[in-house]
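Researcher: Structure prediction, please.
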Amino acid sequence: MKLTGRNPVRHPGKRVCAVVAVGVLSASSLAACSTLAKLTTKQAVGNSLSTLQDQSGISLAFSVGLTPSQITQLADEHGGSGIPAQVAQTISQSSIVLSFATGNGEELKSKQTEKDRSDRFDFGLKIGSTMPVEIRYVGQALYARVQLTQLLSDFGQGASAAAGIQSALQKGNQYVPGLDALGQGKWVSITKASLAPLLAIFKQLETSALGKSSLSQYKASALKLEGDLKSAFKNNATYTNAGTSGGRTRYNVSVALQALVQQAGTALETYLATIPGVGNKISSADISKAASDVPAQAQLQLYVKNNRAEEIDIDVNQFLPAKDKAPFQIPIRLVIGQPGTISAPSGATQLDLSKIGTLISGMLGGLSSGGFSSFSGSGSSTATG
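Model: Predicted structure follows.
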């Protein structure tokens, strides 16, 4: 959604740095869950996070903790001439939700979870109590649904916008039979068998780009990056107990943000150096510049209830220049909970991907001296239960 109006946005570079800083803090704090018990002097904090890994499922909901009036005020002061009340209400009620459940009830930290083919997840945009955009993975099949008309209406768009997208999906039906069902708000599905031709293409491209003997090396590099990011958070965070209210205990987390960005950036630079054609995209100078553009310190809050981490809040306001700060906090909120039942929807239309291999082959200029005709598959637009 684009907001335009009388006041130009100031210091776009600093705003980008603010967003980057929030992302680093959110990702780092989540990645550090498995090691946080070793980082804090408050045993309760460590227990509240390790308890999450003892569960067989988890739900993560990201949202902006603002009221509609606060969203309207921000839009007026920093983006333009206003925002419709309905859109402000929609943003206030929206969250990005990711839910995961292990296939056979094993703990999240179990090694079995990593290889359990029955694992299930659900991802989508939730507005109030409905989820107009949703993707599920159940039984090694992928399901998706977009309630297009309702979604666009919630964000202030008319019926003509939905009609345009539906028309485009109908045209795409000649390449992917069944695609028009998505525009009608119906569930569509992609089975493991129908994905096989595409996976074969991307596997060949991966091997061609990285080299057969190097695949294990890149996996090891990715694991090292994960460990380095956890260490970066561990080395630059301290924790204090801020008391209990409403049955929840609040822990304030103070992060040496510039040092964190520097250490995390160095780890990323080392990782990217192992990827052909990418390694020189980030330099030490870039990392130092990014570190200098964020505050020296940043704060976030962890809320614990019944010995379980329940919420993490980060105030974006702390990253903005003084003249651009809002007169209230702008919290990016992560709510941690238990997932509901994740099941395969009934009556989904199966997408036919048999033509995709040929299309990709053409776009890539007929790689492998004959294209990927050997990867062509077959499918049909049939309903799955």
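Model: The radius of gyration is 23 Å.
Researcher: Thanks, that helps.
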